[in-house]
Amino acid sequence: MKIAYISYEYPPDTAVGGIATYVHQVSRMMLARGHTVEVFCASTHRTISEVVDGIKVNRVLCTDREIFHTIILPFFETANEAGKFDLMESPEFSGDGLSIKRNFMHIPLVVRLHIPWFLVDIINNHYLTYLQKCRFMLSGIIRGKLYRRFWKPRNTKTDPDYLTTMLADQIHTPSISLGDIVARKWRIDRNRILNIPNLFAPGKELLSIPSSTNTNTITYIGRLEVRKGLVKLAAALSIVLKAKPFIKVKFVGGIQKSPVKGLDMKEYLLEKLKDYRDNLEFTLVPAHQIAEVYANTDICVFPSIWENFPYSCLEAMSAARGIVASREGGMKDMLEDCDGGLLIDPSNHTEIAKELIRLIDNPDLRVKLGENARKKVATAYSNEKIGALLEENYSKLI
């Protein structure tokens, strides 16, 4: 098959998130399985077509994601004239493949769900109160402006995420939860959305970490932001640290805004946990050193309000850590069927605290759950398994 992957994100120029990781991995995997692969992506500083590790990568200078789908179209047209594509794949997010599909309706389109903007809006505005909405609108009136209500539902008639997905010949989702949400919101037959996880190959450095450790450390890995559930985690940790003052808590990730104006998330956490500041550590770690972080923790906590397919949870599973994770989203798929961790309601801080304390008090349980998780992750997301699933479903479109 000759496959085109269309994505604003692609390393190294636009490696801004999980979409870039996925497209980079899947393109290399499909090439290794004998297919011809071409990538159409953005760059922050150049326009170039180059061959990288056997894959032709077409990069177009574009720093505005909203217009990428129109700017990339001529490059696809030229490439398709040189050799017809059998199919193309695009994320739903920002409609990266929208213009290409509209101009090449005869080429099958696979839309892979990552996280549509409507869901980003819901998560980001999770703690926005009615009073805050009123204050926002009033501030505009005072300035003689009518501010757009950013929490207002998106219009499907103009939403590129929706329009691209409606043009899809096949829809894939990494998590069951995301497929359910999109099907319900956009009134799509859930049977049309195929459950196909992302790739993940655990590194030897993670798999070699002993399952039984005694570091008395809880670690959160990810961006420090509201949608990752850190508001409720702060409340939970105040309970945990009061009951277990010997525990250390490490936050590993970039610092974003908090729900309190004027405070970033690190400042917010330090304020909420001011009685336990000596127990806290904040750091950033390059990817090649992340195994050391897992080796020096007993428990990982991922309390996201909702998350699709977090690689940090898969890394923790590979390291056989004790895991306390949100049941809202893809981590439920990862952990529930293998009894690989404790799932919590991310809106319930007492439940988060209870399960963290449970793992602190029961090291044998923590080790057992960690070993279960490691056993699953060793094969469940492998190139062999996911590659075969993609080939099987891609071939149905040709």
Description:
Residues 212-375 form the Glycosyl transferase family domain. This protein is an alpha/beta fold and 398 residues long. It folds into two domains: 2-118 and 156-199 and 383-395, 3-Layer(aba) Sandwich (Rossmann fold), CATH 3.40.50; 204-381, 3-Layer(aba) Sandwich (Rossmann fold). Helices cover 40% and strands 17% of the residues. The chain has helices at 18-32, 68-71, 73-82, 98-103, 117-124, 130-142, 160-166, 176-186, 204-207, 230-243, 265-272, 290-295, 311-318, 330-335, 349-361, 363-377, 383-395, and strands spanning 2-6, 36-43, 48-52, 55-61, 87-91, 109-112, 170-173, 193-195, 217-221, 248-252, 280-283, 299-302, 322-326, 342-344. An eight-stranded mixed sheet has the order 3-4-2-1-5-6-7-8, sandwiched between helices. Strands 11-10-9-12-13-14 form a six-stranded parallel sheet, with helices on both faces. Strand 1 (2-6), helix 1 and strand 2 form a beta-alpha-beta unit.
Question: Could you give a short description of this structure?
Answer:
This is Glycosyltransferase family 4 protein. With 398 residues, the chain is an alpha/beta fold.
CATH topology of the largest domain: Rossmann fold
Low-confidence stretches: 128-141
Counting structural domains, the number is: 2
Supply the CATH superfamily name of the largest domain: Glycogen Phosphorylase B
Radius of gyration: 22 Å
InterPro entries: Glyco_trans_1, Glyco_trans_4-like_N
Protein name: Glycosyltransferase family 4 protein
Domain Glycosyltransferase subfamily 4-like N-terminal: 16-198
GO molecular function: glycosyltransferase activity
